[in-house]
Amino acid sequence: MIITNGLQHDSVEGFNTYNQRVRKTATQGQIWSGILSPLLSGMSLLNTAIVIFAGSWLALSGSLSTGAALAWVVVFVNYAQQYYQPIITLTSLYGMIQLAITGARRVDEVRSQPDEVRPVNGQPIDHIDRALKIDDVRFSYLPGKEILHGVTIDVKKGQMVALVGPTGSGKTTVMNLLNRFYDVDSGSITIDGTDLREFDLAQLRHTVGIVLQDPQLFTGTIADNIRFGDPEAGMDRVIDAAKQANIHDFIESLPEGYETKVSDEQNIFSAGQKQLMSIARTILTDPRLLILDEATSNVDTVTEAKIQAAMDNVIQGRTSFVIAHRLKTILNADRIVVLQHGRIIEQGSHQELLAQHGFYAELYRNQMVFE
Ligand SMILES: Nc1ncnc2c1ncn2[C@@H]1O[C@H](COP(=O)(O)OP(=O)(O)OP(=O)(O)O)[C@@H](O)[C@H]1O
Ligand SMILES: [Mg+2]
What we know:
- By secondary structure, the chain is α/β, with parallel strands linked by helices.
- It has 2 domains: 8-111; 131-370, P-loop containing nucleotide triphosphate hydrolases (Rossmann fold, 3-Layer(aba) Sandwich), CATH 3.40.50.
- Helix content is 49%, strand content 18%.
- It has helices at residues 8-60, 66-92, 94-111, 171-178, 201-207, 222-226, 235-244, 248-253, 271-285, 301-315, 350-356, 359-370, and strands spanning 131-142, 145-156, 160-164, 186-191, 194-195, 208-211, 220-221, 261-262, 289-293, 319-323, 335-340, 343-348.
- It has a 6-stranded mixed beta sheet, with helices on both faces. It has a 4-stranded antiparallel beta sheet with strand order 2-1-4-5, covered by helices on one side. A two-stranded antiparallel sheet has the order 7-8.
- β1 (131-142) and β2 form a beta hairpin.
- The chain starts with 7 loop residues before the first helix and ends with a helix.
- Adenosine-5'-triphosphate is lined by residues 141-142, 147, 165, 167-173.
């Protein structure tokens, strides 16, 4: 963005004020901590000089005998050094103490974040027997600004439910709630009758698999990336997942195959390839409930067909939510739920919705014109 808009100069300028402030503060800090230590050493020497001078003066003026004055000087010089030494040591550590206090403050900031609320003895789940139910759910990210206004969706085991609707209608929000990134304000989400909040969180996330629209690859090899959800998985399972995700042939065509290094700086994959790899990653974890968020929005038609086939592979036999902008991908969903402004305005199968001549029918007709 910076380069295409020719803003290199301006964005460097933007950092200048901060850099100058850092430079000024750092210089001041160094000057003060540099001065402090020699200043105190100087004072300690001055102190010794005063003691010796006073001792000599007392001896010379005759108010003390030379022997007593000498003993007096020795004792006081000794004391002066003893109490100055720790002070000098402390001041030389002053900079470090300041850094430590700053560090402690940051640690404290993290530690004072409220914990996620969850029951101590959350129930384990390893399968969905009957159904997932979203019941009259209301939710707001920020207090007073409700995003979902009473959403009810009932999904039977093994069903595929598609969520469609305009941008900002709350589709991704529903997905966030299913994975318990957030908790509902009122209403409930239940799996086989048990509230989501009563499940063990780690196990819930194991049960729910998510493919995001914007897939992330981590530093490591391709194989590491695919077995991310289950680092113990053997190579056969990795290859199997890649085959199901339709990405095996591409990986094999790379000179280093599954051992190809992936990193942020050296990103040699297209958006579609990344998407397929993240689908493979999700397949490998074998989730009971699957959520696909707009998995086909930024790829060509050949890749789209591949992703579609990969999705069909993962969806098979699993309870799944598919959030889609391209309606072609969800024609065979068991049920299509149309969201608008956080409310369900229509739901039913593709044929039923077409027959209603409502929002969905309109959306579908518009898309078909371009296909
Ligand atoms: N973290 C957040 N904090 C506050 N508001 C948010 C947050 N995330 C989303 N919203 C708001 O919630 C509403 C629904 O957003 P959501 O991401 O669910 O839309 P969506 O249906 O997934 O849209 P799209 O089709 O563009 O992906 C939007 O109005 C958005 O501004
Ligand atoms: Mg979204």
